[in-house]
Amino acid sequence: MDEKDRTIKDFGEQWRKYSDNDGYYGSLELFSDILSPFLRPDEIRDCRVAEIGSGTGRIVNMLLEAGAKHVLAVEPSDAFEVLCRNIEQPEKVTCLKIMGEQLPAYGDLDYVFSIGVLHHIPDPAPVVEAVFKALRPGGNFLVWLYGKEGNGLYLAMVRPLRILTKHLPHFMLASLVEMIYWPLVFYIKLCHWLPLPLRKYMMSILERISPEKRRLIIYDQLNPSYAKYYAQSEARKLLLDGNFANVRIHHRHGYSWTVIGTKPNS
Ligand SMILES: C[S@@+](CC[C@H](N)C(=O)[O-])C[C@H]1O[C@@H](n2cnc3c(N)ncnc32)[C@H](O)[C@@H]1O
């Protein structure tokens, strides 16, 4: 099995252990933060949209709450069952158990979203190409990616750790997550007093997330076989190489990239 298939398998297992999207983690408020400064949730109202890499349906339900007319939810892993079960307005959703690169060339989508997914695909170019074909002219592709900039110290710690953790069985990884959880809680408290790395993310996002979902976030960092942390130029290039125009990028909370591009009219 190659790295791409291993990563999909890892997520299939992960999402069957952590299957709900409760609280701030699954809220429209968090979605608004992810889209900012390029889009507001109300701009999605009555639109035909897709999400690539839907996992447990967290973003799909946010899109429905924002008023999307129809959502295509793409998820290739065994989490597909969890996705179908979690969808809140099933009559407005089509779930597709396919890879992002297999998205049909509908040519009429207003928006495609891919939140926290492309950095887990070793060669994301075919996915970007498929999204381009699925959008209508003037339609937009918004992606959120892990960033390299702002994560220096974090990556110095997590990269060596991942060499081991991506191979651990669930019960061992879950025990390790428990050992990391309490120092993380302490670190978040310290961020109130000291200008520590990732302070902005800790205080504006992680502090608002429930203990259970914080554990999931630690697990999600350590579990997948493949994870790339994008430099700003690489994140922009991903959409520029896919022929997107008006590509704009935002350094979200100083640790990640939100990138948006438009399919040109001609
Ligand atoms: C970190 S999860 C993000 C889930 C969801 N977007 C969210 O934010 O809650 C990444 C998801 O991408 C999926 N994925 C991995 N490779 C993919 C591919 N080639 N095409 C589509 N989805 C893929 C995984 O199975 C996983 O569910």
Give a brief outline of the structure:
The protein has 266 residues and is of the alpha/beta class. The chain has helices spanning 3-17, 28-35, 58-65, 80-86, 125-134, 152-165, 170-190, 199-204, 211-222, 232-240, and strands at 48-52, 70-74, 93-96, 109-115, 135-146, 245-252, 256-262. It contains ten helices and seven strands.
What does this structure look like?
This protein has helices at residues 3-17, 28-35, 58-65, 80-86, 125-134, 152-165, 170-190, 199-204, 211-222, 232-240, and strands spanning 48-52, 70-74, 93-96, 109-115, 135-146, 245-252, 256-262. The protein has 266 residues and is α/β, with parallel strands linked by helices. Helix 3 links the parallel strand 1 (48-52) and strand 2 (70-74). Bound molecules: S-adenosylmethionine. S-adenosylmethionine binds at residues 7-8, 11, 52-55, 58-59, 74-77, 79, 99-100, 115-117, 120-121, 220.
